[in-house]
Amino acid sequence: MKSFKFLINGNQYEVDVLDVDGNMAKIEVNGTVYDVEMQREIPKVKTAVAPPSQARVVKEINRLLRLNRLLRLNRLLQRVPSRERLPR
């Protein structure tokens, strides 16, 4: 899970949190495993929904801009009187 390094009174400790269940945790301190009880329960983290990527947003904006240009062009063409076919 997580690893920590502590320096307590000049002594270095490497602590690995192996498992957490409610307010109970299994940790390893300098190679020795301990079961410890925490004073308060750590709340579980909810998985957040990732926002859409910037590239996807830019792509959608460009698509909408192209569509808007086509719609404006179509409106302009509808105003122009129809012409006869050009000779080949």
List the helices and strands and how they pair.
Elements: E1 2-8, E2 11-21, E3 24-29, E4 32-37, H1 54-79
What does this structure look like?
With 88 residues, this protein is an alpha+beta fold. The chain has a domain at 2-37. It is built from 1 helix and 4 strands. It has one helix at 54-79, and strands at residues 2-8, 11-21, 24-29, 32-37. The chain has a 4-stranded antiparallel β-sheet with strand order 1-2-3-4, with no helix packed on it. Strand 3 (24-29) and strand 4 (32-37) form a beta hairpin. The protein is rod-shaped and about 90 Å long.
List keywords for this structure.
4-stranded antiparallel β-sheet; 30% helix; alpha+beta; 34% strand; 1 helix; 88 residues
Summarize the structure.
The chain has 88 residues and is an alpha+beta fold. The chain is built from 1 helix and 4 strands; from the N terminus they run ββββα.
In terms of structural class, how would the helical and strand content be classed?
Answer: alpha+beta
Number of strands: 4
Helix and strand sequence? EEEEH
What is the helix tally? 1
Strand order of the largest sheet: 1-2-3-4
Q: Tell me which oligomeric state these chains represent.
A: single chain
Characterize the overall form: rod-shaped
What is the averaged pLDDT score?
82
Strand content: 25-35%
Terminal-residue CA separation: 76 Å
Radius of gyration: 32 Å
Can you summarize the main beta sheet? 4 strands, antiparallel
Low-confidence region ranges: none
Helix % is 25-40%
